[in-house]
Amino acid sequence: MTRGLPSAAALLLVAAGAAAQVDSMARRDTLGRDSTARRDTTARDTVPRYLPVFLEAIPAGPLPRGTRYTFTTDSLVLSNVQTLSDLLAHIPGVYVARGGIYGAGEIVMYGGRGAAGLEIYWDGVPYLPLGRDSVFLDPARISLAPLERIDVIVLPASLRVYLVTLRQRSTETASQVGIATGEVKTANYRGAFLRRWRSGLGLSLVADYNDNQGIEGTSSAAFNSKDVWLKAEYVPSARFGVSYQTLSSQWHRSGADRIADWHPQRRDGIFRVFAAARDDGLGLRAQASVATSSVSHDDAVPDRSLSQRALEVTNDWSRAHLGFAVRKVDDARPWQFEGSGAWSPFPGLTLAGDARHAEYSRGRSGRRAQLAAGLILPAGLSLRGDLAWAHDLQAPLDSSDLGQRTVDGSGAVRWDRSWISLEVGGATRDPFRPSGFPVAITAIDSSGPTRLSPTQRTRYFTAHGALRLLPGFQLSGWYFDPLVRGGNDFEPPSHARFSLTFYSKFWRVYRSGIFGLRGELAMDSWSRGTAGLDSSGVLRTLPEASVAEVNVEVRIAGVTIFWVQRNVTLQRASYVPGLDYPRRFQFYGVRWLFTN
């Protein structure tokens, strides 16, 4: 229509000129000065335009099938996910040590490696622990509000989690409002505003506020948090861009009978600039970043800050990737040199790997390397294998940490069809001595666990998959068994998670596609295990439990209404000995997503 209107106007002008040759009244003709024609704004196209953005800071492919778990925006909305720990609980073998309801510590344990079992990257920058706990990260304290995608790379004994922040592509303004409430006066308010201009300038703002009054006499203490994320960017083309983002997180966990009072504030800032040789994401690309992190207002420890600088150079082809990066962190981690590569020499075969050499304080150093291979076979079958070698530190700030040498391997066979996806695998892990214990789930009394016990050489079996029972109905889940009598700390000898989901867009009163109804019944079950050593050196017992939850979501266009109820089986659940979890805890709310 925008092309047709100028053409029509031109034809009218030509016709008027032809009439002027034979009409003596032509000098009075005002068609050329018509007010409607002068106000025509078709030359200024108001149709939303899609602009280039920073590439997602995730491991570049190709990668073997089954090594990466991807969670998109819908995965964060249409699910039971309230925190990053909730999301990671969907990964086979993950145990979330919960100290109570939302606001309590939710430490992710994987592979019996303690803090070394989890690495988190925020837009490609390592998210390092700071403050009262300088060894363990609590993923539940990382806000999900500014995120649009989460990728999890599963290694034989560790997880690498890549968080990708919101990237506004359209010039049409987007905004979001969210409100949630629940028991113990739970309140959640979320707001977002994202704007891009045709010049490439962009501004994004997300604010998230959470509060609950806690449950008296339990480890679920009163909690309050405020997260504010701001990003300004200038990306005029796919070949150049610059951005700066800052995330301010302040939270207060009130002191209770078994939980210490904790009131820190963390600020993270990341400046990034990139230059690329091509517009399609392939070819040579360089990116430089400067990141700062600081923690303050914690009366238990002094304020602390660190800065990171990195230069990354990559080259991508249609079936291969090669990258190199150099990082400079703090005094404890002066230099890190990283390399990565991936190659698919022919369809069906994929090879990928990475390596890192790190220099630490006091003349220490660490090295690690990982290699993965995948082969796609006929009839939907595929094979993959992983080998990880490391001689590295897990707590660089601890001057007594001299590193440990480990060799871990895993393999799996996978079958994918339109109605079923099933993977069965196994692995072997070397012995390991984890450092410390998470402060977020340590009880104040003297009987509280103080450290994790060493793990022995472990072989484990795992299976996970999804089965479409009927249209709209799906059964999915995973099973994990370390094949060790008694298991390792927070790695029970038998651990499973199952989910029955119904999802349909059957209500055709609305325009097709804008209505969706989702319901889920999920259960997390584990056998008796161990939970670390107490202050006397006695191994603590992790009791067996089966905890179920229900969640229902209704979506109509940009409106999502949700309701979640935890521990519907009325279990006297204890994810951590000495700390408890309430029965039938629920929260519910609605989120709106607006455009223009």
List the helices and strands and how they pair.
Elements: H1 4-20, H2 35-38, E1 68-72, H3 73-77, H4 84-88, E2 95-98, E3 106-109, E4 118-122, E5 125-126, E6 147-154, E7 159-165, E8 174-182, E9 186-196, E10 201-212, E11 223-237, E12 240-253, E13 265-276, E14 283-296, E15 304-317, E16 320-328, E17 335-346, E18 349-359, E19 365-376, E20 381-392, E21 404-416, E22 420-429, E23 449-451, E24 458-470, E25 473-481, E26 495-504, E27 515-526, E28 529-534, E29 539-542, E30 545-556, E31 559-566, E32 585-595
Broad structural category = mainly beta
What does the overall shape look like? globular
SS field, number of helical segments: 4
CATH superfamily of the largest domain: TonB-dependent receptor, beta-barrel domain
CATH class of the largest domain: Mainly Beta
The number of E-state strands comes to 32
Low-confidence stretches: 1-35
Q: Could you give the distance between the termini? A: 21 Å
Number of domains: 2
Share of β-strand residues: over 45%
* CATH architecture level-2 label of the largest domain: Beta Barrel
Query: Do you know the CATH topology of the largest domain?
Result: Maltoporin, Chain A
The biggest sheet amounts to: 22 strands, antiparallel, barrel
Mean pLDDT across the residues is: 88
* Rounded Rg: 28 Å
**Helix fraction?**
under 10%
